[in-house]
Amino acid sequence: VSFDVNSNIAGTFSMLRLLICLLITAAPHSSSAVAGRSRVEIKVHTGGRKKKGLDPAARTAAAQLLHVYDDRLVFESTDRDGCLVVERGSFNTEDGSPLCETAVPVEEAVGVTKPQDSFPIVGIYGVYALPPPVGPVLVVMRASEPVLEAAAHHMQYERVTKLEVIPLRRGQGNEKSPEATHQLDMLCGSLAAHDLFFSRTPTADVTHTMQRTFDMRQRVAASAPWQCADRRFFWNRRVSSFLQAAGAHEWVLPVMNGFIDVRRHASGDGSDVTLVLISRRSAERQGTRLERRGLDEEGNVANFVETEQCVLKEDGTGQAASYVQIRGSIPLFWGHPPHMRCTPRQSILPTLLDWADLYPHQPRHTPATPPTPQSSPHLPAHSTPIPTATKNTTTQVPSTFPSEPGYCSKFPWPQPSCRRAALSLPAACCVCQLD
Fold first, then answer.
1. Which pTM value belongs to this model?
2. How far is CA 260 from CA 130, 285, 310, in A?
3. Which of 91, 191, 223, 406 lies 20 to 30 Å from 170 when distance is taken between CA atoms?
4. Which alpha helices (DSSP H) does 246-401 contain, by range?
């Protein structure tokens, strides 16, 4: 990847942003992953022996195969030595994760017993520990579709189109009970609410921006792919921890949750240009906007999204440009509990406001001699005098104030109704709230 650095880089990126917005809005696209309602298909594996075995052609074309037995799950790969065996019914006593063994010879893992079912897969997503009667379940990615193929720019992304949920408890006969069905429906609904993307090649990690991928090309070559992934956007990092703990690094496939849109256009010099828009949702502090706000003890903010706009020049030179923006909740410890009232009326407690706490360097003023704009250095000369008031009462203040810092006219909402606690506070300390 090569970057054409201009002296006026700020102006270059501003024009780049404008160009991308205009082209994405006006021109048709050739391939995209549309956000909104997810198009992923989710299936729950019910068990039982299948009458029809795996098609030999599908076996040859598949990169990975999953053989389902009553006591184990065997993962076979064409580009790896040995198989991955996940035990069904044997779990870790500390965290409840399933026991697994890697680099098992194919003859030993498969054995002579015919499996209940065999089908090709894309990769392993992770394990969810559901409460009884379901218990732990394994989620695998069965199918995907290509979204972006740009090998010259190290960007090869695919979107998950089919998932399958496999219960790990042996001999459970109540998987069709109402409670078990409800739990599985909730899990499937949660998975279907997201668009999941991944990359098969380590040098095209979907969790990193183009610049980070370019800077980490030497580190990626010497480490496992999941060890170099950005943990903020490594969506299945926690649910695939049992593979990481077992040393099955080659079986961990980092998955990103977000949005990818790809559109191809012809530039003015006759060469083709690919426009890519990628949004990555953070997995550190998940939740909807109305239910999750602020940050946590580790500094992760809610609703954190990294959006990258890329322009790829398809002339064989590998030239590309990338512009990255981030957004998130206000980085403070705060909450916003949802309610049904659109304009809640808030009350001001005068006992919580004190002049000495706000201005400790000035002497305390009594209600009989309130501070005036002429005596307070914090107010402009044309401020409205504060009327005399007593404690536990409020004074109505006009809704029109000069356009000075600290006044209500600086707030975005129109015509606010302002109330000021009557503890001899200046007009700059008034509390505004929309009625």
1. 0.69
2. 31, 21, 11
3. 191
4. 355-358
Spatial CB neighbours of 116, under 8 Å, sequence gap ≥ 6: 47, 48, 49, 50, 68, 69, 70
Query: Of all helices (H) and strands (E), which one includes residue 19?
Result: helix 9-26
Burial of residue 350, with CB atoms counted within 10 A of its CB: 0-12 exposed, 13-18 middle, 19 or more buried: middle
Rounded-to-integer distance, Cα 220 and Cα 203, Å: 7
- 400: pLDDT confidence band, cut at 50, 70 and 90? very low
Calculate mean pLDDT across residues 268-275.
Answer: 82
Letter for the amino acid at 197? F
Burial environment of residue 307 by CB neighbours within 10 A (0 to 12, 13 to 18, 19 or more): middle
Instruction: Determine which of 22-36, 118-132, 177-191, 314-328 has the lowest per-residue pLDDT on average.
Output: 22-36
Q: What is the distance of C-alpha 344 from the center of its chain?
A: 31
Paired tokens of 357: 């706490």
CA-wise closest residue to 83 among 73, 69, 96: 73
Q: How wide is the angle at C-alpha 186 spanned by C-alphas 184 and 192, nearest 5°?
A: 100
Task: Give the residue among 209, 200, 176, 318 at the shortest CA–CA distance from 250.
Answer: 200
Amino acid 246 reads A
CA–CA separation, 88 and 99 (whole Å)? 8
Whole-angstrom distance, CA of residue 323 vs CA of residue 308: 6
- Cα(240)–Cα(253) distance, rounded to whole angstroms? 9
Q: Is the pLDDT of residue 382 over 60?
A: no
How far, CA to CA in Å, does 135 sit from each of 129, 174, 322, 324, 410?
Answer: 6, 11, 44, 41, 55
Query: Which pLDDT tens digit goes with each residue over 242-258?
Result: 999 998 999 999 999 99
346: DSSP letter? P
Please compute, for residue 150, the number of CA atoms within 13 A of its CA located in the half-sphere on the CB side: 31
Mean pLDDT check: name the lowest of 44-58, 282-296, 301-315. 44-58
Give the other-Cβ count within 10 Å of 19's Cβ: 17
